[in-house]
Each structure stands twice: as C-alpha cells, then as structure tokens.
Amino acid sequence: xxxxxxxxxxxxxxxxxxxxxxxxxxxxxxxxxxxxxxxxxxxxxxxxxxxxxxxxxxxxxxxxxxxxxxxxxxxxxxxxxxxxxxxxxxxxxxxxxxxxxxxxxxxxxxxxxxxxxxxxxxxxxxxxxxxxxxxxxxxxxxxxxxxxxxxxxxxxxxxxxxxxxxxxxxxxxxxxxxxxxx
Length: 182
What we know:
Oligomer: single chain
Number of strands: 6
C-alpha cells in the first residue's frame, strides 16, 4: 500500500487524509490468546502485531474514511485512547513498510472522459461500470492528480474541503488507481 508522506510530520495535518484501503494486500486476525491483532500479508509471510485499539482502527483502512473520521469512531469505542492514535498509526505503518511513499491519487488508465452537451464532463470507468459527472473546472483538477508530487488544494485554487470531497467521489466511483506497492 502506498500513501503520500513527503513533508516532515510536524508540518502535516493528517486529519483530512483518507485512510488507504489495505484490504487488497492485508488481512486482520485476532490472536486467541491475547488482545493483540495481527495484520497478515495476503501474499508472502509478512505479519505484524498491533494492539486491540490499533486493530480496531485498521478495520477502517478501507479507502473511504478520513483519519479524523476513524479517530472519532475510535474515541467513541475506546474512551481512553490517544487523540492522535490514527495519525500515529499511519506513521507507524510507514515505518514498518506497510505503507510507503506515493505521488498521490492517480486516475485509473481505463477511465474515459466524455463531453456532455451541457458543457460538463462525464468520467466513466467501463470495468466497474461507474460514472461521475463533473464541471470543466473539476475535470482540470482530476486530470492533474498524480502529476504533481505535492498537489494541494491551494495549488488548484480550491478549498481543502472541495478537494477532499472530489477525492471521495473519485474513490467511491472506483476512478482512482489503488496504491499497492507490495
């Protein structure tokens, strides 16, 4: 799995990042004899142990929820957990080699653009049979995803919330390449 971790941790605000989908490469299992959770590679012999709280958080690494949304669920389930546990878990996963650096979200090569008569654009994924109708401005932003290593909302002159919402739509309609490195 890959995730864009390029700046120093002190400079980053992890809260709005979407937790990557680890399911294509990893499975979670609970040890019978303890509260520990094991993250096992689907291919190969790699496995890592995590606390029960970390394991609970890893259940939500599905490419849908943000770090802050997972943290909120964690805090609701475990009253005494670190308020930055999920952000620290991401750092831990990078250090362990489970997550790695990426150039960010990229549009799938199979995705096709179709111009609509009203001037908007339809992005179509023929494999998943999904589509998304966007404005010409959003089309320009989507086409730039993955081109710039440090792409940010400011670079596209939009709010962070708008960029986050656009990335969520792209993820929900299976338009983004999975960041699988292993």
